[in-house]
Specification:
221 residues, mainly alpha, two-stranded antiparallel ribbon, 2 strands
C-alpha cells in the first residue's frame, strides 16, 4: 500500500521498480524508508541501547544477543559482514545498497542502473530539483526506471514501432526522425553552454547555417 501510494503521489507508473523508492539519492533513488526494514531496525536500535545501559535486571530478563541475531536474520544481513553490533544507520545504508542488486536483476527495468554508481555527484537533482520543473523531474524518474511511455517498453502498446525503427527510449532521444526538430532546438538553446558559463568557463558556441539543400551545417564543415 505504501509503495502504491508513493508512486501515485509522485506520478510514476505502477510498474516503476520498487527498488527505486529505497535507493540512496546519490544513486538516483528516492531514499524512502522501507517499512519492512524499519520494524526490525528500530527493534535492533532499542536492543543496542539496552545493552549500553548494562543493567543486571535487563541481563537476567532479556536475551539481547539472541534478539540481535533474530533482527539481523530477519533483515538477511550476515552477522559477520558488518562487524560486531553495527549501528542501525550502518545497517540501513547496507540495505539500501543491496537494493541495486534487486534492481539490476529485473529483466526489462535494469537498463543502465549499474552506471548510476560511476559519478554519484551528478545525481543530486533527484533530491534538490535544481533547474528542473516538477514535470521534468517526473519524466526523468520514468526514464531512470525504464517506464517512460515508449512502445518498446512491455505493456505500453500492442506494437513496438511508431516509425521505421523499434521505439525504445534510446531511439526516441537520439535518432527518431519525429523528434529531430526538438533535438536540434534543444541543442541550439545552448543549455550546456549556459551551465558551463555559470561555472565560470569560457564557452564558444558553434554557428549554425543552412545548406542549399536545406540541411543544417556547422561553420567548420
Amino acid at each position: 500500500m505504501i509503495q502504491s501510494a508513493a508512486k501515485e503521489m509522485l506520478g510514476l507508473p505502477s510498474d516503476t521498480p520498487n527498488s527505486m523508492l529505497y535507493f540512496s539519492n546519490n544513486l538516483k533513488g528516492l531514499g524512502l524508508p522501507k517499512a519492512r526494514w524499519e520494524a526490525f531496525l528500530q527493534n535492533y536500535n532499542s536492543i543496542l541501547i539496552l545493552m549500553r545501559v548494562n543493567n543486571e535486571h535487563i541481563k537476567h530478563t532479556q536475551t539481547l544477543e539472541e534478539d540481535i541475531k533474530f533482527c539481523l536474520k530477519s533483515l538477511s544481513i550476515p552477522e559477520e559482514k558488518l562487524g560486531e553490533n553495527p549501528s542501525s544507520r550502518k545497517l540501513r545504508k547496507n540495505l539500501k545498497e543491496t537494493e541495486i542488486k534487486t534492481w539490476c536483476n529485473l529483466p526489462q527495468k535494469e537498463i543502465g542502473v549499474q552506471l548510476f554508481q560511476e559519478v554519484t555527484y551528478v545525481n543530486n537533482w533527484v533530491a534538490n530539483h535544481n533547474d528542473i520543473s516538477s514535470s521534468e523531474w517526473v519524466a526523468a524518474m520514468k526514464m531512470n526506471g525504464n517506464v517512460a511511455p515508449v512502445r518498446g517498453v512491455p505493456g505500453r502498446s500492442q506494437d513496438g514501432s511508431r516509425c521505421s525503427e523499434y521505439e525504445t527510449l534510446l531511439h526516441v532521444l537520439g535518432f527518431c526522425s519525429k523528434g529531430y526538430v526538438l533535438r536540434i532546438t534543444r541543442h541550439n538553446q545552448s543549455l550546456i553552454a549556459e551551465s558551463l558559463r555559470k561555472m565560470v568557463f569560457t564557452v564558444v558556441e558553434e554557428m549554425i547555417c543552412n545548406a542549399t539543400n536545406g540541411s543544417i551545417r556547422r561553420f567548420y564543415i
